[in-house]
Every structure is written in C-alpha cells, then in structure tokens.
Amino acid sequence: MNSVSLLVIILLPLAAAAAAAVSPERWRPLLIPFTALIHSAFVCRVVFLPESYPLEGMLGLDALGRLILLVISLLFLASSLYAVGYLRSHPTWNNRVFIVCLLLFLGAMSLAAAARNFGLLWVAVEATTVTSAPLIYFNRNRFSIEATWKYLLLCSVGIALAMLGLLFIAYAGLGDGSGHGLQIDQIMLSAASMSKPWLRTGFVFLLVGFGTKMGLAPLHTWKPDAYGEAPGLVGGLLAGGLTSVAFLAILRAVQVMTAAGEQALARHFLLALGMLSLVFAAVFVIRQRDIKRMLAYSSVEHMGILVIGLAMGKLAVYGAMFHVLNNALTKGALFMSAGNIHRYFGSKRMCETQGAIGFLPWSTSLFLIGFLAITGSPPFGPFMSEFIILRGIFSGGNLLLGISFIALLAIIFIGMSSTVLTVVLGPPMEEETSPDAGHETFMTIFSPLLLLAAVLVLGLYVPEPLRVLFQEAAELVGGVQ
Amino acid sequence: MTNLTNEVLMAVILLNFFTLGTSRLGACIKTVASQGILLALLPPMVHGINGHSMVLMAGALIIKGTIIPWLLFRAIRQVRIRREIEPRIGYIATLMIGALITAGAFIFADRLPLLPQHYHSLFIPAALSTMGAGFIMLITRRKAITQVLGYLILENGIFIFGILLVEAMPLMVEAGVLLDMLVAIFVMGIVMDHINREYSSINTEHLRLLKE
Predict the structure, then answer these.
(1) How far is A262 from chain B (nearest CA, A)?
(2) Measured between beta carbons, which residues in chain A are less than 8 angstroms from residue B180?
(3) What is residue A435's predicted lDDT score, i.e. its pLDDT?
C-alpha cells in the first residue's frame, strides 16, 4: 500500500503538470493548491505511518527521505495558496510555463527525496535545476534573465561535478568485485572494503557539486542573484525546499563515508564549509540594502548552520534535522512577505520601502516576525534547533568553535536588523505610492501567517511523531548517542 | 579492440584542441557533435555488443550527436552570430593552456590508484583533459553559446569516465542523465534567446547588473 502512495507522491505532480499544460487559463492556478493538498495528504500518510519499505530498489523512504519529503510537501502546501493570490495579481501574464514548471519542480523534489539510487538522486536534482530556472525568470526583465543564466550555468556545472563524484564512488567499488552499482544500501554495505582514495575524492566532488546547489560558501555566488530576482513564492521554495533536497544529497554522501569509516574526513570538510558560509553571510548581510538579497545571505547562513550541525555529530545532528524543518518554514514565510512588500512598492531596496508597516500592516508584521524567528529569537523553532546544535558543539568540548558560532550569529542578527527595522519602521517616503495591483490580499497573507504559526508551535512544543522522525533521521548520519 | 579504442580517444583529445583554437561557432558546434558521436561508439567497443551498450550508444548518438547540435545551430541562427570575437584570453594562449592541461592529465593519470586493467589505458587522461578543456571554455569565453559548448565538453569528459563504469550504472539512470542534459541545453537555448532579445547580443559581459 505504501509503495503505491510513494508512486502517487512522485507521479501526481507530473500528471498535474500535464493537466496544467492543457487546462484553460482561468482554472490553471487552482491546480496548484489542489495538487498540493493531495500530495501532502499522501506524504503525511507515508511519513507518519511508516511500514517497511522495499529499500533495495530504486525508490524507498528511510527516515532522512521522509523528513525531507515532509518539509517539501508542507512548504509547498503553504505556498500553494499564496501562488493563487500571486498569479491573480498578474492576470495578464501568461502563466502556463510557470505553473507547469512549478508542478514539475515539486515532482522532481519528491523523486529526489525517495531515490534509493545515487544515479536517480542525481537525475532528480538536475531536474530541479532545469524546472526551477523558468520560475526564476517569471518577471521577464534584464535582471531576472541574468540571474537565471547564472543559476542555470553554475548549478549545471556544479551538478556535473557531482556526477563525477558519483562515478568516483562507483569506481571505488569496482576493485572488490562486488559491483554494487550506485544503489545506496549496497554501497553502504560494501563501503568498508572500497578503495579509500577514490571514495574520498568522490566525496569531495559530491560535496562541491551538491554544495553548489545548496548554496554553501564559497559556492553560493548564484544565490543572491537568483533569490533576489525570483518571485517571492519561488524564492521561498528554493530557499526552503530545494536547499533541503541538496542537503539530503550531502547527507547521503555522509552516510556512505560513515559506513566506510571515513566520517572524520567528511566532518572536517563540512565544518570548514559551514564556518565559511557563516563568515560570508556575516560579511555580506551587513549594510545589505536589498531585502531579498539579504534573505539570500541569510539562507547561506542557515545552510552553514545545517552542515555545522551535521559535522559536530551526536546531539548537534538532531538539531540539524530539526533545523531543516524550521529553516524551510521560516524562509517560506519571509520570502512571501518580502514578495508582498516588493510588489506593493515596485522595489525591494531598503530606501524605497521604508515605513512599509504603514502601507502593508500584515505583510510587514509577518516580515518582522519572520526576521525574529530566522535569526534565532525565542520562542520560535529556529531558536530551539540552533540551541540544540550549540549544546552539541559545547558538549563536544569545542569551546572556541561554539563562541565563534555565537559571535557570527550575533553579527548576522545585528546586520539584518538594521535593514529590517528601517524597512518596517523607518520614515516613509513623501510621495504616496499606491499601485493598484500591489495590495495584500487574504491569500498572500494567510500562507506566511500559517507558516509562522507552525514555526511558533515548533518552538514551544515538538509533537512526538516529529521528534521520533528527527531522532531516526539523525541516527542514520551518526547523530544522537 | 583496445587499439581502436585508443585511437578514438586520441581523436577526442585532438578535437578538444580544435574547439579551443577556433573562433567559428558553427565549426565549434560540429566539433562537439562529432566528439559526442565518437564517444557514442565507445561503449560497444569496450563492453562488447549487448543490449545495455547498444542502448547507451543509440542514446548518445541521438542526443549528443544530433538533437543538441541541432538545438545549438538553431540558437546561433536565431541570434545571428558566427564568431566568438574577443575571448578573455587569446586563442594561442588557450591552446597552450589546453596543451599543458593535457600533458598534466597524462602525467597525473599514471599516479592514480587505478585498477590493474586500467593502467596505461587512455581513458583516464582523455577524461581529465576533456574536462579541463571544458573548464577552459567555460572560463575564457564571453558568449553564452561558447559557455554552453564548454559545459558540453565538460559533460563529454565525464561521459568518458562513465564508460568505464557502464556495468555499475543502471540503464534507467543513464537515460535520465542524457535526458536531463538535453532539457538543460534546451532551457539554456531559450534563455540565450531571451538574453539576445534584451541586449541584442549574447555576450555574457552584459550580464553584470546584479552586484552588491
């Protein structure tokens, strides 16, 4: 029964995309929430009623896959309502390509979460690149075409390097004659007897390739452009959904390294990339005058936090798993509310959106709350997960690392707050700017509101099934005693 | 068979130099296409004629040898360009760098912990030098189309390495890889067309509006 549900999860978005390609303009946007609702119902079924899965084949769900699938599906569900409202505010734009690609994007991400073969995982991640490129270009101007080109080329080259890494890992297994192919469970079984130099090199290439996709510094250069120019809805899905999928690919690579007894090396690389991401984010977020680019650097920061959590092992890995969910939900809310502000003022620069709270009370309040949540203020979810990661760092005896972690997070908080507070509370510009299409509507407010409510609940109380899911996921990558 | 394989690989390496040294885009596309066709011949040569290697050959012939070149020719017709005018680094210099990388690939390949059956085969140096050539194209050329060609050459290099591992890769995955690449080139072609409409040129140096 569950393997049928799994197929539905992957094939439903593809079928919906086909339907969107032929359906009339007026009904097309409604396909998004409709698909999202069924998708998330099936996802909840397979995530919280875990029977045994056939893990030997191409598809299957372990705890890591279930976690990422849940994250993607919830974020997409919340975004789908916003998508309808957003497309209504641009009634004259042709939305066929956008909606088809959006649904295919969901299908590709679901496939990546359920892939039990590294080759299939690669195919799915590359498919997310090509399906999301047209989404970034939806605004159709010089800025978005530049962002799309950079995104497409850099991520394609990055993913090509990840393919090389996969081939290296396959080559590492040729020597012992087991011929494991790229099936993840088989690789892990024979990992101990693999050729170590090829395995290590393969891991580095995988980390570089999927790290580009995830946006870890110094491979993040496409990120501010793509997130900055994409519609807020797409920015949220990229920052919350796609990065989680790329993180899953890295988690798989770490699983293999752990099975081969090479986790020390893996952690070394992860820690270096993570700290570098925090440093880059701290440097570039200060005096960042563009709210969406600021959010992009915040995304770099949180990718850094995720891999640091993964690198520290034990309790911190549990924190990282928790943080995947928190980051996705909060980023979704932030990008959507920033999108509302952007649309109203026709600008995403700080100086032109000052005093937004007077014009868009709901969106701006949500933006402010989202900012507090993402920078780790209590009582929101990210505070809890970052706190757990920090506890993991200190209990491992890494005093210096823990202190620099806190210091960088504090710098980023201060850097972001100066921009956010000016946008929210600054003196409004003199002339009254009130374009007709830019007003907030129920649909464009309700989605971020829902996401932030979820983030608040997660900060106060983690439901038992979720806690078990985080725990099981963390145990797969060497976390939690 | 090994002799013939080595000659094919030598030809692939020589084609790298041709793409690095020419300014005519049409010739460049044709070269990359013929490189793809040569690579398509390799799986049956190495692994014998069986279903898997024949499907791989057919897939590579159709996608690398036919559809992608057709898409690229259509793209340069639409944007009406024939030549890469000013590369960031001159042609002689790129050729020299290409030669150095190829030499380096041969020296480096001997030091790798290869399996006994792959010692002194041309596969590893050919893969490394082709990937190197792809990277040079990506970095030194300004036109969007030559960057796409660089990406294709990089993919070709990875494909050479992948041929050694045909047994390890499920057919479905290989098909997916080729298909993904095709769609990626298709999307890149569309984006190129839009860059051309915005700027009346596909020089990527126009793409510098976005900065801190």
Answers:
(1) 18
(2) 123, 126-127, 130
(3) 55
For residues B75 and A283, what is the distance between their CA atoms, to the nearest angstrom?
40
Q: Give mean pLDDT, residues A87-98.
A: 88
- Averaged pLDDT, A358-380: 93
Burial label for B200, CB within 10 Å (0-12, 13-18, 19+), is exposed
A171 touches chain B (CB under 8 A): yes
In chain A, the number of structural domains is 1
Interface predicted TM-score (ipTM)? 0.93
Q: The domain containing residue A454 runs over which residues?
A: 2-476
> B-contacting residues of A 35-74, CB under 8 Å?
58
A123 touches chain B (CB under 8 A): yes
- Dihedral angle sign, alpha carbons of residues A259, A263, A267, A270: negative
Mean pLDDT (whole number) for A129-152:
92
pLDDT at A73 over 70: yes
Question: Is A481 a domain residue?
Answer: no
Taking all residues of chain A, what is their mean pLDDT, rounded to a whole number?
91
Q: Is residue A162 part of a domain?
A: yes
Which of left, alpha, beta for B80 (phi over 0: left; psi -120 to 50: alpha)?
left
Q: Per residue in B54-95, pLDDT tens?
A: 999 999 999 999 999 999 999 888 887 777 667 788 888 999
Is the CB of residue A193 less than 8 Å from the CB of residue A182?
no
Question: Are the CB atoms for A278 and A304 separated by under 8 Å?
Answer: yes
